[in-house]
């Protein structure tokens, strides 16, 4: 529904992590990203060609995707100038921000005048049910994190890619704007009304073949006080058979919460499993997925070996070293 | 803002529990309820005088309050006839259902024609922040339940009444439609967008005097897969100093989930406390509040004594026997 390929708008991203939407598209659908558009002061860089709107248009880009997330999701006046110019240049706009393109009168007016489309992928377009907790056929895997933004989506995408390479039945089930922009559908869970969160995940992961895996994109963390409720709805609506623990070893405090330390992997394991077994008594913690982007290869290998010994579980960085170990663990249950 | 007194509309409630909104108003603001309106097949009864619309009008009622909750919250055609007639009779309408009065074209048209108001108390009217987890001054108490609808709101209201009688500083903080209809303000938590749930509770319970108690209305249960995410947002946004465990001893399975057993009070204590200490390391479980409505007085007394011995905590039914024990426990921390 969203026309490809994209020009990825990074705005004035304060750091690389703020551009994780664009990074995700770039990593998982590189053919869809012809270039990046950065404003003065932008601290993110995807390594794509920096393009003006006209250059990107000439290179074939059809949609300007806002690939940067602000805290609170506001569309600033500085951004607005670029967005208006993009519409006038003949781009559609796509966004996963809480602040909607459709709520900006100037964007709506320019889009109407130019005949371009505004896509707000964060807006739920389905009337989700209240969760009924009924056991569903098929298998489900969920990554749960010690913190937000530790690699849960990448873990699910990497597992999906590996399962498909092995001829296994698998579907990546997006629950956030990046995943939705990558695959074209999913549940924008953080924008779902509270009472329907768990039901939206039941809807997203319906009955399936007994040997089919739903790879559900994780969100937040049980230990992140801003978003923990979203995480628990995902655990109970998803009724996973398998949990994968996700962690970023160099994080010094919970993202956005300077006073909050990260939990240990052991605490995450015990808390997640106890809660997951409310919905699925057979749930198991099968592996650990580590995001080692900030570590050298030697450091990463050492950390993985140490963690594997300590936790008694398969451990890897699926983005750096492949998802083989994780898929082996899932195939074994 | 909602004009009192009320005529309480019970519709075709399938059981007494479905009328808990009306029951709450009736129990905590009896002066506001002049009578009840029941349709054919209604299985709920508040013990109020059954009135026609004309009789209620003559008795002084100003607003027809929809005091019954359906699963999914739909406004049926059978109800619609009564609601239209009520507007024509000169009543305002107030509702806490997910389906909004304002989304029903016929009600909107009749309200406009008659000059009456439609109040949807479930709709958030504030742009809530994302939770920042900052420690706030003042004390906070939250009731957490083994299940939904076990008496968490009553517990908070009863504690508030007892604290005020003792001259303590206390505020009841509603998080659901009944509480909002009782007090006139609060956060309709189950209708808040997922990302802002915890932030809405921080907003509801701001910095206060060191000896002031916020008595936060609980919602759902960590063990109820349909609503557990809402409960966890309440625990992390509320950062309670004190938890009170709420339980209804005769419940045979989780409400609405026939395949799900209730957790033990010990499981509730351990899970709630571990999660609450993420936001407030000093949090304590101070007491147990039991809803003994379905038990004889002898049974209730025996159950309370047995539970007190087993849990090593003060236990009572605050609605039946008063909230003194609970307030004693809170005053001691």
UniProtKB/TrEMBL annotation, chains A, B:
Q: Which domain of life is it from?
A: Bacteria
Task: Report the SUPFAM superfamilies cross-referenced here.
Answer: P-loop containing nucleoside triphosphate hydrolases
Which is one Pfam family of this protein? DUF1611
Please list the residue ranges annotated as the D-glutamate N-acetyltransferase-like N-terminal domain: 40-124
D-glutamate N-acetyltransferase-like C-terminal domain boundaries: 130-327
Q: Which InterPro entries match?
A: DgcN-like (IPR011669), DgcN-like_C (IPR035086), DgcN-like_N (IPR035402), P-loop_NTPase (IPR027417)
UniProt name for this protein: DUF1611 domain-containing protein
Write down the species: Maritimibacter fusiformis
| Taxonomy of the source species | Bacteria, Pseudomonadati, Pseudomonadota, Alphaproteobacteria, Rhodobacterales
